Amino acid sequence: GGGGGGGGGGGGSGGGGLVEGIYCGSVSCYELLGVERTATRAEIARAYRRLARRDHPDRSGSSGGSERFVTLATAYETLRDAAVRAAYDATLDGPAGRPLRHLYDYDYANTNTYTYNYTYTYNYYYTYTYNYARSLLLLRRAPVDARAVLAGAVIVVSVIQYMSWWARYQRAICHLATVPRFRLRAEDIARREGLLGVPPRGGARGGARGGGRSRHEEQEEIIRGVIRSHVDIQGGYRKPRVTDVLLVRLLLLPYSLLRFSAFHLRWLWLFTVLGRELGPTERLHLTRHSLRLSVEEFRSMSDEQRERLVQLALWEKRNMEEFRRQQQEEERVRLAQDSRWKRFRRSQRSDGAGRMTFSDD
């Protein structure tokens, strides 16, 4: 093979030591594309496009044009990927970063030189084969788009969110169907609307047991349907909305930020700068904020409860402290009148705070 070019700064890496069938064969990939080893990715791409147009089999018409075109494509695939190019450059540099030399130019008269060259030859071809196998793995690795992974994760989380919320809402409906107050009301509405009292589908006597079970299931479904349409469940068990899932909230994030900014700018201008009197909507907002309740928790209250809290003007510190004190006093009175709390206090006085008792009372 020719002289040692791998360590030089030029495009030529010399044919010495390069192996046919691996990378670009006995010719350096840089030489094939006519670029320096310091060439950028854009320069490599321009050189490949220029040579590919010239040596394309449909345009060259020569018998060797197809093989040369494939070799050019191999050189481009090797040098365009940063990781594969680094492995190829390490191969050209030889083991331990030493430049490529004439591997078979031994000095048989000097045993030390012969041993050194033999070891160097073995290390070089071992490194060459290892880097080539590593390059194949890098070229065949599946490209991963982080945006696609993130979008898939958001979609999966959103589906799980909606399904869990719907299951929780269905459990709440089934529970309300067992509460006598809601069940009797739902049965009364269903009878007025003609949904109950329909004879079985299978005739008067046919399939008594199976028909009875089927009719019972139909009645239960009718009652649950009436409850769904007439009972407004709030809080954590309310009917799920698509706008609450993560995917839709992210899509609506710019709009939400715009509304948030507009609300606070309006508040700052009207009530801080101009000093206008608070309206009903603003009083409700301040009351909810003072109680540290979420929107759903505040909506779950009755209109009378919300109006009573607004009348207390809890956004003022003095009123809020008085409200907290009254709440604590009411809780103390309630516990004092609770029979279970009385039994617990008696057990604490008689048995001590740290003892466990198994008495019935």
TrEMBL record:
<keyword id="KW-0143">Chaperone</keyword>
<dbReference type="InterPro" id="IPR001623">
    <property type="entry name" value="DnaJ_domain"/>
</dbReference>
<keyword id="KW-0812">Transmembrane</keyword>
<feature type="domain" description="J">
    <location>
        <begin position="28"/>
        <end position="92"/>
    </location>
</feature>
<keyword id="KW-0472">Membrane</keyword>
<dbReference type="InterPro" id="IPR036869">
    <property type="entry name" value="J_dom_sf"/>
</dbReference>
<dbReference type="GO" id="GO:0005789">
    <property type="term" value="C:endoplasmic reticulum membrane"/>
</dbReference>
<dbReference type="GO" id="GO:0006457">
    <property type="term" value="P:protein folding"/>
</dbReference>
<dbReference type="InterPro" id="IPR044632">
    <property type="entry name" value="DNAJC25-like"/>
</dbReference>
<protein>
    <recommendedName>
        <fullName>DnaJ homolog subfamily C member 25</fullName>
    </recommendedName>
</protein>
<keyword id="KW-1133">Transmembrane helix</keyword>
<dbReference type="Pfam" id="PF00226">
    <property type="entry name" value="DnaJ"/>
</dbReference>
<dbReference type="InterPro" id="IPR018253">
    <property type="entry name" value="DnaJ_domain_CS"/>
</dbReference>
<comment type="similarity">
    <text>Belongs to the DNAJC25 family.</text>
</comment>
